[in-house]
Amino acid sequence: MAYGYAGNILRIDLTEESVSKTPTSEYARDFLGGRGINAKLMFEESKAGVSAFDPDNPVIIGAGPLVGTGIVGGVRHEITTRSPEQVPEGFGNVGSGGTFGPQMKYAGYDHMVIRGKASKPTYIYIENDDVFFKDASHLWGKGVFETNKLIREELGDPEVAILAIGQAGERLVRVATIEHEYRSGTALGAVWGAKNLKAVVVRGTKGLKVYDADKILELNKYILDRIKESLRERIEWSKKNGKPFMPYPKYCLGIDAIDEYMIMEKKAITGYFKGIEWPDIEKTRGVPFVMKRLVRQTGCCPLSCEGLMGVPGIGVAVMKCDPFWWPWQLYLTDMDKAFEATRLCSDYGIDNQDIVTPVSWLMQLYEDGIITTKDTDGVPMEWGSGEALIHVIHSVANRKGFGNALADGVLTLAKKLGPRAQELLVHRRGIVANSDEFRNQAGAALGTAVDPTCGRENWYTEEIWDTYLKETGQESEVEEAYAHARKTYGTEKAVIPWEYEKKAEGVIINEYDERIGDIFGRCCFVPAGTEAEARWSHEVGMPAKVVYPAELAIYKAVTGIDFNESQLTTFAEKTLTLEKAYNVREGFTREDEQISEYWFKNPIPDGPHKGKVIDKAKFEKMKDEYYTLRGWDTETGWPIRETYERLGLKDVADSLQKLGKLPKAKKQI
User: Fold this and answer.
1) 206-254 pLDDT, tens per residue?
2) Domain boundaries, the chain
């Protein structure tokens, strides 16, 4: 097989307890790897109308060509299946760093396709060429932490890489996750529960061949130098501005810098109902908590972007997935309780944002008198109550009391609670909004609406937050951003968050950026080139820049293959179009690509952007512009045949045409 690739796709049938292999080369030329091949396999291996919990719904795990090759950040895997959380169900994908991707590659596999349903609780153990179907009855009902411990003890190998579900996934909780070390995300874990699949475990010792090992070492030195340089810059910023600096939790930014920026500019903070004018917000600062509770830095590369925390009486765990952003949503000032909730979600296997945002909603309903303690098992949903949060987590994961309805999706509970509760629920196709604020971010609103997966994926980073930059002595960044916008888009409005012009172009750039990292299998937050800091600089308001030339240099060092940027963006476009095609086949139209009506009707309550809402007419115009640029029909939101064929997806177009899912050709006037 070519350099950088393991060479095989492993196909596993849980029903028959059988395995087979096919060569990766059948897909690599046209879809490159990682998320690209996953998207193609998902479209091919699934049937129209098959539900997320049907045995015929495949689960695809893929690792791109950079994974396991020694390049810094080449540690990611992608999991693709039908999302049980979306309403209606649609294309689901989640990526994660860690050891699973490299171990899978070392065992000889670039991708796995898992289908069927085991007759009893099962975990799959893969050791190079051997695949074992192991009885998991003794693990069923246990949390992720104990499951991992018991599997490693049973196999006598502390180094195996494990993907596992907790009790939430077993009980088909629709916000359940597939957990791996210190990262989860999009809720796909219930699909494994429906298959009686507790875990997938892999140990590989074969290694991989790379084209130019010396060049990889050279590139790694450059990347590490850039990380050090970025750390020095942040430390200098900290000294200049009198702010504490710690290289945690994300992207080597000081936590207080993130806090300050979010408070000053970006978010409405405490849910979507309150605002930022709250004196106790200082108690949610991350730095004091980290200084008190940090055990050590950890992560899957030298960036060490995660922090292992320990709280007496609760335990040790990673405070993951934007941990210091969501306490604001609840007025929660007890950060130890926030840690307890995060740790509990990790053990049960639940995405914490899928719990926190509904709790924020419940607290508003309680304050407004729409619900009482009778609706929540006797527990008052009071603002700032850590006990209420913990109660909801237990109730959902165990399907107890009112949590049983919430476990079937927040829309299920909203319908049960009545029209006013439904009106106040902020969601997109049944997926609750995370801590982002759309009413002052038109690009983020558009990117979220048109995203074919979980609806939280498009980080619209072509934006400048000038108040923050000016007040922190970074005025030069404002002019740089405006100059960049004028040169790239023809107008400064492209980088002003609440303007609508040229946002479609920026969304497309971000869609490519996300998918290129996922196709390669390399973390996008690890520097790759001279503009690499922009990968995470959007968190402090700097304009993002795509750094494909560095990624192409890395790809050549690993594989020996030359690409240009145009070819690379074509792979990204092809991947997105396949994800879109899956949803088209399942009946999605333009009307499904929306954000919550809440964003159009309820102005930001206070702060520097008080009164802002998304203008619906301008929002729909942005969608028209986006569809036109993509080569999609503006009426249906579906890609046209010419677009499929331009991308080498004629077979996809043919299959959709048979189902009547191609737009009708427009008459020429």
Assistant:
1) 999 999 999 999 989 888 887 787 777 766 766 666 655 544 333 333 4
2) 8-203, 214-256+272-307+316-432, 442-451+477-637
Options 2.30.42.10, 2.40.10.240, 3.40.225.10, 3.60.9.10; which CATH number does 8-203 get? Answer: 3.60.9.10
Pairing assessment for the beta strands 315-318 and 161-164 based on DSSP bridges: unpaired
Q: What is the pLDDT of residues 181-204, one digit of tens each?
A: 865 567 899 999 999 999 999 999
pTM here is: 0.92
In CATH, 214-256+272-307+316-432 is 1.10.569.10: yes
Distance (Å, whole) CA 448 – CA 457: 7
Q: Which of 107-116, 269-278, 323-332, 482-491 has the lowest mean pLDDT?
A: 269-278
DSSP bridge partners of 199: 123, 164
Contact present, 140 and 38 (Cβ < 8 Å): no
Asked if 110 and 5 count as a contact pair (C-beta separation under 8 A), the reply is: yes
Exposed / middle / buried, residue 309 (Cβ in 10 Å: 0-12, 13-18, 19+) = buried
What is the third-level CATH fold of 442-451+477-637?
A: 1.10.599
CA quadruple 426, 430, 431, 437: dihedral, nearest 10:
-20
Which segments within 441-496 are labelled E, that is strand?
none
pLDDT for 482-498, tens place per residue? 888 888 889 999 988 89
